[in-house]
Amino acid sequence: MLKNPKQAADSLMDWYHVHKRDLPFRGIDNPYFTWVSEIMLQQTQVDTAVPYFNRFIKRFDTVCTLANASEDEVLKYWEGLGYYRRAKHLHESAKRICFEMDGVFPSDLKTIESLKGVGRYIARAIHSIAFNEPSAAVDGNVLRVISRLTGYDQDLMKPANARVVEGVAQSMIEHAPPRDFTQALMELGATVCQKSPKCDVCPMQSMCVAYQTDTQGELPVMIKNTKRTEKTYHVFVTTHEKKVFLVRRPDNGLLANLYTFPQYEGDLKTALKSFESEFKVDVDTHDEAFKLDHIFSHQVWHLVVHRVELKDDSALSFVSLTDFPYAIAKAHLKIIDQLKVI
Length: 342
Ligand code: SF4
Prior knowledge:
Layout: H1 5-19, H2 31-41, H3 46-59, H4 63-68, H5 71-78, H6 85-100, H7 109-114, H8 120-131, H9 140-150, H10 159-173, H11 178-191, H12 209-213, E1 229-237, E2 239-240, E3 243-244, E4 247-248, E5 259-260, E6 263-265, H13 268-279, E7 283-295, E8 299-310, H14 330-339
Parallel strand pairs: 1-8
Antiparallel strand pairs: 1-6, 2-3, 4-5, 7-8
């Protein structure tokens, strides 16, 4: 598919050494840090992830520090990043590494991939970046670059087709230092071969099929079939002297153990009744403040946010948001932000 993998790898590496961004997880010789960064960068933009990464590794400086922390504290350090399951899996796997592997991060691909929350891509990214092993890692950026470079127009949502792309990346990584190559290919996808590609400054231009055939806009082909369940909730915001009333979600399911304002499905009347009966309160007044949508990978929440006054709020425990030690769900952080309740 790629006529000259060595030439492609050489061009990429020459470009990378000049243009790579200075990121805190680059150039570190610590598989634990590489693992944390790769988990954070899944579903999160680099600019957003960087401050989280810096804070996280400052507090949890070794895999055993992470293993010995409480889940509540780990979630607090993840607060606002979303996809909290990533943090829970990271914590669980840290315990496994610390208590079952003497705190030594595994270096073989199979064991890395067996860690909870680590799929094929992250395992291969860690294997190549942290251990300098030639395992090509293919994420969304790499799929885009290689499909354009080779003119590969098959549906990349199909695992077998994504493996074809991985095979091309594998043919290239064997001609370069694996640690740098993996980061270089991702970097090219993130900064040059973006959705609107900057072909004029791309080191691969002379060998790129999409550039030569003017088909950059048609590649990659990814036929998505994500049907999200839609749910509507009434959210009740009760405040008392700059404090708010929050509830902890159950310890399983979506957003397990995170804090939110009370929220209920159904029509408003039923939702208010549920709120009153659950917390043994009487609602005095309620005003709809605004609506907002929050999108998860398989669900969309339509949140109707109400400010609520109670006849007597003495039965509720209100908390200050300035020093609240637990993680609040991202959707509800947005509510806090919009209501400016702090
Ligand atoms: Fe992407 Fe354009 Fe470079 Fe081809 S030439 S790899 S389409 S940026």
